[in-house]
Structures are given as structure tokens and as C-alpha cells.
Amino acid sequence: MPLFVHVLGLAVFAQGTSEFMLSGLVPGIARELRVPVGAAASLTSAYAVGMMAGAPAMAALSARWPRRRALAGFLAAFVAVHVVGAVTSDFAVLFASRIVAAVVNAGFLAVAMSVAGSLVEPGRRARATAVLLSGVTLSCVAGVPAGAWLGHAYGWRAAFWAVAVLCLPALALVFRSAPAGAADRPDLSVRRELRVLRDRPVRVALALAVAVNGATFATFAYLAVLATDVVGLPEAAVPGVLAGFGAGAFAGVTLAGRVADGRLGRGLVAALWALPAGWALLAAAGSRSVALFLALAVVQGALSFGIGTALVNRVMHVASGAPAMGGSFATVALNTGAFLGPLLAGAATGVTGDHRDAAWVSAAAAAGAVAVAALTRLSPRRG
């Protein structure tokens, strides 16, 4: 695997840390900027919306730019908005900085997927994509807990500074090592590439990605609460639970990068069938045994992120007619799931008052993905 693909993975790690670290910083932000906790928590939603809106727009805008200019420009802007976020005392400015950070993150990821795929032979593109996405999973294992610790020890601004500093080595290496040639698609037609979305295999792959990632984040958003309030673990054990989920996720991404080929094959379908069963077991029996809860956290992390990686490759495979925009389609689908999953879980637990229902929401979403996959495999038009 080319070294530069790992450089891109480092940048994605920093960006993933920024996306998820706010879950541990909300109380400090609310207290210092004198806003309600709900308003501070909306910063996470702002980031998700920015990713969804920014991915296709930035992919289209940057498709004609030289690759080095696009990658360096997006990453430099990401550093700049984190500096703004770290120094502002105005919540509106902080909110706007999160949207801008998400938009440029989406742009960087769309270009990075294209560059990573172009640096390897076709048979290794799935593995290159897995290296990029492993940056996100590593941010769950190490970056998010570290950001929470920094916020607790030195204030929430320290976490913003840390993300900005973490991006600097990647930015320097992008200037030094990124392909300096012209854009891959100087003749890009956005309208022609968007027509690929009409293809049934593309729409099916995107629907699967939304459902699976929605299932993932419906429970992930409540994992700490489940560990303490339902299973009865002490708060000191929460970082370990999150790290276990993240370690499973990293293993799943790595395995998927080695075996996924972009097809809706037997292995992917088998994993999809196992996914809702695992979430249902967590909801029904996870609270009865600490060992079972911890084991399921690891296994579901591996299944969820492994399937998610395979589905990204699936999108890229069936959307080969949109080489510039295909990565942005996958980004929108994953972030739509990440946005809707916790929203649905919050609605369910708000009605019942039982946090275990977040896992039942995950089971239902994953079961929906299984139904879509089963119907697709039975259809003679499958891609």
C-alpha cells in the first residue's frame, strides 16, 4: 500500500476525531458559552448536516482542481476553522465553524477516496478505501477518548487546538507527496454523474448504507448510558467500553478491506443477517451479563463498521459511471444514517424511558437492510 494512502488516513483520523469528540465536550461548551445543553449538543447535528450537504457539492467543485491543491486546500481550511472554534466566545461563530469544518471534511474525503483509488491497482482499491476509513475507527478508539480527556483536564478549547495541531503533519505531507498533476476528470459533467443515482444497484447500495449506519449510531450514541444505567458499570469503565467497540470496528474495517470486492456476495449478506440478531441480543439480554454486554460491543462494532466499509466499496463499484462523485454518494449515505439513527433512538427512548430501546431501533434498522439485501439478491436485475 503506498505510503501516501496512510498519510490520507492520518488526516481522516484527525477529522473523525473532530466529528465525534463533541459528545464529551458538550457540558463544558454549554457552561462557558452560556447556552443550553441542547444547543451545545446541536453542534453534532450541525456537523452531520454539513457533511451531507458538503459531500456532493465539494466533490463537484473540486473535480477539476489539481489533486494536491484540492487536498491541501480542504485540509488547510479544516485547520483554520478549528483555530476559529478554539478562540471564539460567540456560540453562533462556533456553530458556523462546525458546519464549515464538516463541508471541507466532506470535500477532503471525496478527493481522498478518488486519489487513494488511483494510486493502487483495481484489485487493491477496497483495501485503500479501508485504510482511509480505518482513520475514522481509530478516532473512536483513541481520538475521541483523548479529546474527552483533554476537555476535562484543560477545557473544551484544548480539544479543538489538538485537532488543528494533529492535522499539520498530514498537511505538510500532502504538500510534499500528493499527486501534483491535473484533475482526474477535467471533462466532468456533474449532471451526467448524478444520473448514475437513477441506477437501481446504486440506490440499493445507498439505502443499505443508510440503514446499516443508522443502526450503528442509534446504539453507539447510547452505549455509555447503557453501560452505566442499564448494565451497572461504573463511569470509569465507559472509556473501556467505547474502546472495545472501536477496536472491534477497526478489526471489521481491516477485514473488509482485505475481502470486500464491491459485490453483494455471500459473505456480506451473511454479515448483514448477523447484524440485527446481535443488536436484538444486546437489547434483550445484554443487561443480564457484563461479559455478554462487553462481548457484544466488540462484535457489533466489528460487524457494523466491516459491513459499512464493504458497502462503501459496493457504492464505488456500482457507481463506476460517476468516478468523481461516487465517493460523495457514499459519504452522504453514511452521514444520513449517522444523523437519523440517534434521532430515532432518542424518539423511542423518550417515549418508553428505557435506554435498551435504542438497541431495538438498531435491530429494526439492520433488519430493514437485510430485507433490502434479500430482495435484491432475488431480483434478476441485481448488479
CA radius of gyration? 20 Å
Summarize the helix and strand pattern as letters: HHHHHHHHHHHHHHH
User: What is the arithmetic mean of pLDDT?
Assistant: 85
Strand content: under 5%
Helix/strand-derived category reads mainly alpha
Largest sheet: none
Distance between the termini: 28 Å
The shape is: globular
How many strand segments? Answer: 0
- Which regions have little confidence, pLDDT < 50, spanning 5+ residues? none
Helix content: over 70%
Specify the number of helices: 15
List keywords for this structure.
383 residues; mainly alpha; 15 helices; 0% strand
Structure write-up:
The chain is an all-alpha fold. Helix content is 80%, strand content 0%. It has 15 helices and no strands. It has helices spanning 3-20, 26-33, 37-62, 67-87, 91-118, 125-154, 156-177, 190-194, 200-220, 223-230, 238-259, 266-285, 290-318, 326-352, 357-378. The radius of gyration is 20 Å and the shape is globular. The two termini are 28 Å apart. The model has no long low-confidence stretch (mean pLDDT 85).
Overview in brief:
The chain has 383 residues and is mainly alpha-helical.
